[in-house]
Each structure stands twice: as C-alpha cells, then as structure tokens.
Task: structure prediction
Amino acid sequence: MRLDSFLPALLLLSVITTIQPVLHWDYMVFTQQWTATFCTFKHCVRFPESKDFTIHGLWPNSWPSEEPKDCPIAPDFTQNVLEPIIDQLNEMWPDVLNSEDPFDFWKHEWYKHGRCAIEDELIGDELGYFNVSLGLKKRTPILQVLLQEGIEPSNYTVHKAEDIIAKLHKGFGTLPILSCMKKHKETAKLLEVRVCYNPSLELIDCVPNIHTQLESETISEEQVTNAVPCPSEVLLPEFT
Result:
C-alpha cells in the first residue's frame, strides 16, 4: 500500500477508536437502603442476611436531578447471566418484599435504570451493571463509617441529619443525600443514603435536593410511605 493512501486510513482508524459512546445522562446515584426503616412501613417477607444497608439501585441521572431520556431499549434481562454473582446479590441487593422470585426486583432495576447505565463503557452489559453496583457497595460501607463515628442503630437516640451527612462526608470525601420515612407525630427514620458517581465511577458531590430540609411539621400530618428528604432530626432504628 502506498504511504499517501495508508495515512488517511490510519487517521480514520485513530478517530474511530477514540470516539466515546454517547451518554444520555450526566451522573449516577447509588442508593443504599436501611431495611429496618423500610420494613416499618412496608410488609416485608424476608430480611437481609446481615443487618446492614442494602442496595436499592444504581440510577443514571440528568443534571440537575432528572431521569434521563432517550436511553436505548434494554436488552432482555437474562437470569443466567447473574449466576456468577447470585450469592452476593442475595446478600447485598435482596428483595425483601418477594421471597418467591428474587429476580423480580433486579429485573425491575435493569429495565428502568440498567438500560441507561450500560451506555457507560465501564458497565457495558447486564452482568456489568450488577457487578459494578456490588463493587460500589463495597466502596461505600455506610454502616461501617457511621459506627466508626459513633452513630449506632437505636430506637431512641435522635441524630441531627446534618451530623450524619457530615460524618459520611468525612468518610467518603463527598456529600451524600439522605431520605427518610415518617409516621404521624413520630421522629423521622433514615431510609436511604444516596451517593453519586460520574461516568468514570469516581465519587462526586450529589446535587442537593431542592428541599434539603423539610420542617417536621411538613410531614407530620400523615404517615409518609415513600422516600422524602429528611427533616432536621432522624432515627437510625434497630432491626427487630
């Protein structure tokens, strides 16, 4: 091949190999759930094998805090793909509402969020989506950090939400977001801790919730059964 015809081909190959996949989102929210709170408000049929935070999901988001649009249709969810990590999923990402089919919860997360997440070449496919999530759980051991900072599960000890955020900030180096559940005239209970990652899977500050602090009166009129921003004071309840 002549050199003058070889160089354009080489240049084209270089361009193709450096093109990055298009992302329809800006960052990901990795959410871990405190089952002791969740099961106070929902009818749970099983509990985690360990009394720890468990994975709720890994959710791509568009700036500032919206679900992404125009993600590709997800490939079919294939149970067999997850066989190499099934024991870890049962431990760290259990479905506490369904004891008969543990795949239901994972299937839901895959079709809703995984289809967007796999645009990231560091995730890539179904096994990658769930395996990366397990890895992020190990990188952000929420309960371990809280215990080291003197915050233990208790049905009586009330904590300032800002103190919990500060201790997690100290542990991970970035700002998380907290969500809670609450019963009428009772102290709110910590439900979720959300940490955020860029497409390179590096921790970043989460986008502050528009209503970062809800006054207690705002959510004291009725029982809240969905995640809401935590008020100023919260409990981290014990497992029963």
Observations:
- The first strand starts at residue 27 and ends at 33.
- The CA atoms of residues 114 and 225 lie 25 Å apart.
